[in-house]
Amino acid sequence: MALCITTFTTTAYADHDGQVHDHDTDTAHSEQSLVTPVNVATSTQASTSDTSNISTATSTNSGDAIQQFVAGDFSQRQTMLSDWPGSVESLDSLVEFIANDELYQGNGGQTYLLNKDDQLFTYPNKEETADWPSDLSQITLTNALRSALIFGQAKVKLASDKPAQRLQAVDILADNIDQVDPATITTAAANEDNTKVKKALTALQARIDFKNGDLPTQIAAVNLLADSDNPQVLVDIESARGWLDASLKAALIDAESSVSRRIEISTWTGHIFTGMSTASILLLAALGLAITFGLLGVINMAHGELIMIGAYTTYMVQNFFQAYIPDMAGWYLLAAIPAAFLVSAVIGMIIERIVIRPLYGRELETLLATFGVSLILMQLVRMIFGAQNVEVSNVAWLSGAYQVSSSLVLPYNRIAIIGFTVIVVALLVYLLNKTRFGLFIRAVTQNRQMARAVGIPSARIDMMAFGLGSGWAGMAGCALAQVGNVGPDLGQTYIIDTFLVVVVGGVGQVWGAVLAALGLGVSGTVLEIGIGAVLAKIVLLVLVILFIQKRPQGLFALKGRFVE
To answer: d(Cα 111, Cα 139) in Å, to the nearest integer?
Structure first.
């Protein structure tokens, strides 16, 4: 959760043509190292004003503090960073401007912003100007200013009224514990009313007391640290072995054992969560195949490419939002999900009508034909989008992670995929069991001849069911685009695993696919930890083969009077 403050290790020199050149910034205390001259001799106003390329993380009260920082000399800037006079948001804005090489000084301290298209804007009103100052200079950070910024951010965030920002402050201070004033932590802990933040402050205070306190204080600190699962506590304990007092040994040994046990529990919880997210991805990819394979008995080798089409549809929707409605670009994923479903469903119905329907009852020919379709789809994607992977950006509201504890962090995008999978499974169960279309699908699956006899249009149901399964594959591709690479070979990565899920779960059985995906996902993750990815895959395949030999119908057998 700690902010990446130490990433500003170079000063970026920007010329008028927008080129950026890096040079060393280790000149720690020179005011000249804070500004980089910009060649403006031939500057002209850009034809259009594009403020979208300028960072927008500014609050109402950002301007005054940032302008004071830009106008100040080195010592004034250092003082301001150590004791920031503005809001938390204004300091975050300053950090973002500098990180993006946007903040400039000119005309005796006037503040400017320069975007990546070489357009200059006044600050804070962000109006484009053609009047480029002759002394325009970029604002950067030296090592001394970065150090001041670390504690300035912590101090400002520690006084925030938002618990999340106070927790960030504790993380910043914990990463720089040797330079923390113990009195500051003691005062903050005494005044804290949020349980989670207070616990973090108490743990930080205990680490400080363990390092610097007298013997009774150290013993009390060790007893407090025994309830922690922070790996850094183990580092503190290891570093203390050289000066360990005899009376501390028993308490320290117990604390080390307790912390190690808690870290191990958190670690395995993280592994299980990873396995569940992997299982969710497998289940999303396999649900569509469970429908088509279960209903039609068709081994569709192009199913992986339908997943790939869903991912590329997500990429195209993202580009559309960025080009035509940039204000809504952060919400493109909500439009990409139905778009991926529709595009993959339409392509799936075309494949069923043109390729698969003439080959019903001829399994080998169908397998070869769908394999050929998969090759065609991959080559079409390479021709249209190129052979390289394309970039699908994570939406801002799925970036980051939820920190359960010091050693357990759950990424938001993985949490979202698990939740999305639950919703998709619920929708599919409802569709198959509570709708007329689902009744027709189940009837055709259990006894095609009898379904035809009572007037169910089995050919149309076949096509619609194939489209439904293909659409589900497209939604799986949309989800995969948020956690992995999107390229022409995306489908090949998951096709074997999806068949394993369907076969182990039982042909056409949704709940069987759910249990099989959970079993394969979690067990695969656990095996990878113990024996590595390659051996884990081999062991898993052997176990699946043994299971199929013992129970060829899978976890759940297909029901029906004439099922063979």
So the answer is: 10
DSSP state of 355: I
**Closest Cα partner for 81 from 152, 3, 5?**
152
The C-alpha R_g of the chain, in whole angstroms, comes to 30
Rounded CA-CA distance 226/428 in Å is 47
24-77 residue pLDDT tens: 433 333 333 334 444 444 343 433 445 445 554 444 345 577 877 777 777 777
Beta-strand ranges (E) seen in 292-359 are none
Q: pLDDT, tens digit, for every residue of 148-158?
A: 777 777 777 77
Is the alpha carbon torsion for 222, 228, 233, 237 positive or negative?
A: positive
Would you call 340 exposed, middle or buried from its count of C-beta atoms within 10 A (0-12, 13-18, 19+)?
buried
Residue with the larger pLDDT of the pair 17 and 519: 519
Q: Given the DSSP bridges, would you call strands 103-106 and 137-139 parallel, antiparallel or unpaired?
A: antiparallel
Higher pLDDT, 482 or 57: 482
- Per-residue exposure over 100-131, b if at least 16 CB sit within 10 Å of its own CB, e if not: bbbbbbbeeebbbbbbeebbbbebbeeebeee
Pairing of strands 103-106, 110-114: antiparallel
User: What does the alpha-carbon distance between residue 92 and residue 149 come to, in Å, rounded to a whole number?
Assistant: 11
Nearest to 490 by CA among 478, 502, 500: 478
DSSP, collapsed to helix, strand or coil, labels residue 535 as: helix
Q: Which amino acid is at 167?
A: L
- To which residue do tokens 């439904």 refer? 468
Q: What is the DSSP letter of 228?
A: -
Instruction: Report the DSSP pairing between strands 137-139 and 401-405.
Output: unpaired
Side chain identity at 77, as an amino acid letter?
A: R
Amino acid at 367: L
Alpha-carbon distance 429 to 451, whole Å? Answer: 21
Residue 219 · residue 225 · CB < 8 Å: no
This prediction has a pTM of 0.67
Tokens of 270: 């993280």
H or E segment to which residue 121 belongs: strand 120-122
What ranges do the domains of the chain cover?
5-39+56-145, 177-265, 270-502
What is the identity of the amino acid at 458? S
Query: Which residue in 174, 128, 131, 134 sits closest to 151, CA to CA?
Result: 174
Nearest to 12 by CA among 1, 3, 25, 2: 25
Tokens at 118, concatenated: 């070489």
Query: Where does residue 348 rank: exposed (0-12), middle (13-18), buried (19+ CB within 10 A)?
Result: buried
3-state secondary structure of 14: strand
Q: How far, in Å, are 181, 247, 279, 405, 408 from residue 224 at the CA level? A: 20, 16, 38, 16, 20
What would the two tokens of residue 393 be? 């950006």
